[in-house]
Specification:
Number of strands: 9
Helix content: 40-55%
CATH topology: UDP-N-acetylmuramoyl-L-alanine:D-glutamate ligase
Shape: globular
Largest sheet: 9 strands, mixed
Strand order of the largest sheet: 1-9-8-7-6-5-4-2-3
Number of domains: 1
CATH class: Alpha Beta
Number of helices: 10
Structural class: alpha/beta
CATH architecture: 3-Layer(aba) Sandwich
Length: 272
């Protein structure tokens, strides 16, 4: 499809909120996170790390106990008690077949609410009937499962698949790949390029979800509009790619390396 508009590094700074001296942690944005599981606690760690590195005033982690222990060990500044948030990040590192009841309730309530939601793979089975502004972050196999398509067909027509899924599901779709396609129900169509092959490693999708969650929480009002949510998704994709490029330096990277590179990339983008 040729109706996708390129979105690159020159567009990202407009979607990064720089805190004012008078802002407190609540004004800067609070992200609620329900990710990770006993089997995959690392996904929670990676998403939380990337979100904090992207910039939020507070992060409330409300996932399972074992994952919470890992997250707190890595980031003692997070809060594990429920309370007010501006956006939700759901589903990274969660198997729907073994998902615990508290996580399911948090996810169901988030989809039924008014706050913007970033929905990763382990929450997509609860998407039906969602009324919140939602952006999903599948790769082509996950989108195929969600829409009942053959994975090869989704991979062969990523742009068309993203657009059709946005229209049929009524959510913004960030379809991950070397060319990431973002489509929203209002007709917004964006495409982002990545040239870092080293990003094809376990956990980079968790980091992307964390980056996007932070951008949405700090832009919560703009994220209630489908077009705004689509632009935030594209900004997250480009920021993720640029951080991967910086962390790689032409060689292998780890996901924590990528997350650590995010603040420097943001500073560079803000300098113009």
């Amino acid at each position: 499809m040729d109706d996708f508009t390129p979105f690159d590094r020159s567009h990202v700074a407009a979607w990064i909120v720089v805190p004012r001296a008078s802002d407190d942690k609540y004004r800067r944005g609070v992200l609620g996170v329900v990710t990770g599981s006993a089997m995959y606690p690392g996904a929670a760690v990676l998403g939380v790390e990337a979100a904090l590195r992207t910039g939020v005033g507070m992060l409330r982690y409300l996932g399972p106990g074992r994952a919470a222990d890992f997250v707190l060990h890595r980031r003692p500044e997070i809060v594990t008690a429920p309370g007010r948030v501006q956006a939700w990040l759901l589903g990274s590192g969660v198997d729907p077949e073994t998902r615990d009841e508290p996580s399911t309730k948090y996810m169901t309530d988030a989809f039924a609410g008014e706050l913007p939601v970033v929905a990763d793979s382990g929450s997509l089975d609860l998407l039906d009937g969602a009324v919140a502004p939602v952006v999903i972050t599948p790769h082509y196999r996950e989108l195929a499962r969600l829409t009942g398509q053959d994975p090869a067909d989704v991979e062969a027509d990523a742009a068309g698949s993203a657009a059709r899924a946005a229209d049929s599901l009524g959510v913004t779709v960030l379809l991950k790949g070397a060319r990431t396609h973002v489509a929203s129900p209002d007709g917004t169509r964006l495409v982002c390029e990545s040239h870092v092959g080293w990003l094809a490693t376990a956990g980079t999708g968790d980091a992307l979800a964390g980056i996007l969650g932070a951008l949405v929480a700090t832009n919560a009002q703009r994220a209630t509009d489908p077009g705004g949510l689509a632009h935030l998704a594209a900004a997250a994709s480009v920021l993720h790619s640029l951080a991967g490029e910086r962390a790689s330096g032409g060689g292998p990277l780890t996901v924590l390396d990528l997350a650590a590179a995010v603040p420097g990339v943001i500073a560079e983008l803000l300098r113009g």
